């Protein structure tokens, strides 16, 4: 199985900050990498698919990059509604696995 | 509006069975691959199973293979997950989601499954 490792596990940031979350795959997954946002007691929401494609309706302050084994999710200017947990997930081959999550908290 | 509504969760004893349902609306269900994902505080998000739009192709995580069966009724716009031989480690919130662009595009609100004596 392909393992997905996110860093950091949590971070504290202020409104307006630029935030970067990284995700590493245990083997080459090309661009088969997706990012999700989950708020408390809610279902995950797709933000980015295929490493860098912005899901419809998602603000442009979210962006994704990377290929192969190393990927990043960037929030260019953190907004109050962005405080949540973020997960990466690969779709290269089954089983499709998720990272352990990165919790973004208010500083 | 695209909507997915899960139901069928509850408390079941170890070794028991449950059938989850996911009612879909607002999109062409028969054209859409679908998936089940579960979540626990300890293990996070875990993909469980997936099925093609026609229902002919199915996929399972090793942890549920042989115990869970995914199916769909395209005439009823409903996805199912039959869960047999349930174990304590199957306790989780179960979500259904649309599989699109090789990602899980839209998710339901989840249904809670608790396996305990």
Describe this structure in words.
The complex is a heterodimer of chains A (107) and B (117). Chain A contains no helices and 10 strands. Chain A has strands at residues 4-7, 10-13, 19-25, 33-38, 45-49, 53-54, 62-67, 70-75, 85-90, 102-106. Chain B is mainly beta and 117 residues long. In chain B, strands 2, 4, 5, 6, 9, 10 and 11 form a 7-stranded mixed beta sheet that branches. The chains are: A mainly beta (107), B mainly beta (117). Chains A and B meet through strand 5 of A and strand 5 and strand 10 of B.
Give a summary of the structure in a few sentences.
Chain A has 107 residues and is mainly β. Chain A has strands spanning 4-7, 10-13, 19-25, 33-38, 45-49, 53-54, 62-67, 70-75, 85-90, 102-106.
Count of strand segments of chain A: 10
As residue ranges, the low-confidence spans of chain B are none
- Name the helix and strand elements of chain A from N-terminus to C-terminus, one letter apiece: EEEEEEEEEE
Number of strands of chain B: 11
Radius of gyration of chain A: 13 Å
> What's the gyration radius of chain B in Å?
13 Å
Helix content of chain A: under 10%
Describe the SSE topology.
The complex is a heterodimer of chains A (107) and B (117).
Chain A: E1 4-7, E2 10-13, E3 19-25, E4 33-38, E5 45-49, E6 53-54, E7 62-67, E8 70-75, E9 85-90, E10 102-106
Parallel strand pairs in A: 2-10
Antiparallel strand pairs in A: 1-3, 3-8, 4-5, 4-9, 5-6, 7-8, 9-10
Chain B: E1 3-7, E2 10-12, E3 18-25, E4 33-40, E5 44-51, E6 58-60, E7 68-73, E8 78-83, E9 92-100, E10 103-107, E11 111-115
Parallel strand pairs in B: 2-11
Antiparallel strand pairs in B: 1-3, 3-8, 4-5, 4-9, 5-6, 7-8, 9-10, 9-11
């Amino acid at each position: 199985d392909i393992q997905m490792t996110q860093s950091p596990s949590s971070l504290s940031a202020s409104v307006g900050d630029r935030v970067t979350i990284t995700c590493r795959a245990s083997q080459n997954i090309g661009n088969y990498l997706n990012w999700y946002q989950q708020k408390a007691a809610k279902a995950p929401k797709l933000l980015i698919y295929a490493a860098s494609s912005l899901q419809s309706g998602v603000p442009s302050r979210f962006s994704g990059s990377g290929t192969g084994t190393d990927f990043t999710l960037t929030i260019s200017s953190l907004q109050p509604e962005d405080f949540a947990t973020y997960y990466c997930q690969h779709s290269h081959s089954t089983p499709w696995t998720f990272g352990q999550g990165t919790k973004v908290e208010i500083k | 509006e695209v909507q997915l509504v899960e139901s069928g969760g509850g408390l079941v004893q170890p070794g028991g069975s449950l059938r989850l349902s996911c009612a879909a609306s607002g999109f062409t269900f028969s054209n859409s691959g679908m998936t089940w994902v579960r979540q626990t505080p300890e293990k996070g998000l875990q993909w469980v199973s997936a099925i093609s739009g026609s229902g002919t192709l199915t996929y399972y995580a090793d942890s549920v293979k042989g115990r869970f069966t995914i199916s769909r009724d395209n005439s009823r716009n409903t996805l199912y997950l039959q869960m047999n031989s349930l174990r304590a480690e199957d306790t989780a919130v179960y979500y259904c989601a649309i599989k699109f662009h090789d990602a899980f595009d839209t998710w339901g609100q989840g249904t809670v499954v608790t396996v305990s004596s």
